[in-house]
Amino acid sequence: MTALLQLAALCCVVAGLVAGGAVGLATRSLRAGLPVALDFWLAAGLLRLGADPGWTSLLATAAIVAVRRLVTWSLGTARTR
Amino acid sequence: MDALLSEDWLKQTVDLLVRLVELAGAVVIFVGAAVAFARFLVTAVRTRDAERFVPVRLNLGRFLALGLEFQLASDILRTAIAPTLREIGELAAIAAIRTALNYFLGREIKEERSELAKAAAAASGATSAAPPE
């Protein structure tokens, strides 16, 4: 099951790159593409945390959550400015 | 009766349940990601409006939150068979991360939904305010 979850996580990482790139290209803005890619990478982190619930994957997922919050917050403040 | 309710049997049963619930969470997350991926690509081909991607992100967020709920349930089940303090500590950290993430996801979903509702209200207001031709 661990190998399957790792494969699913890898698929989500690739999907994040492709979907984030596609949205960024379609809207001609990195602001729209980056949150999309981060959403998929978050899904990958959650799948990896299910496959191997150790400190390393836990720290990696926490880092993705922190970056995601930071990006969402900075994009929100840039939009309201 | 003793053999039926032995500690080993309980451990194996809870372990199986944990795996099942964890698998259900992973399936929900993966299916959500796959559906969102297809919808993102279709929307990217059809439109260049950034607002059109918000409902797709909202849907993906909902799937992630649901998958997280399953993973949290498996964490709770795991506490029944965690024998050492170190394992319980690790479990607590994972549960804390998942709970925090669930909270933030819920907040984001609420914010984006209210933004969508505001945009829809503004659009319908503009249509009703426009003079009839």
From TrEMBL, chain A:
Pfam family, one: DUF1622
Transmembrane regions: 55-71
Membrane recorded as keyword: yes
Domain of life assignment: Bacteria
Keywords, comma-separated and alphabetical: Membrane, Transmembrane, Transmembrane helix
Protein name: DUF1622 domain-containing protein
UniProtKB/TrEMBL annotation, chain B:
Transmembrane segments: 20-42
Pfam families given in the database record: DUF1622 (PF07784)
Source superkingdom: Bacteria
Assigned keywords, A-Z: Membrane, Transmembrane, Transmembrane helix
UniProt-recorded name of the protein: DUF1622 domain-containing protein
Native organism: Actinomadura parmotrematis
Lineage summary: Bacteria, Bacillati, Actinomycetota, Actinomycetes, Streptosporangiales
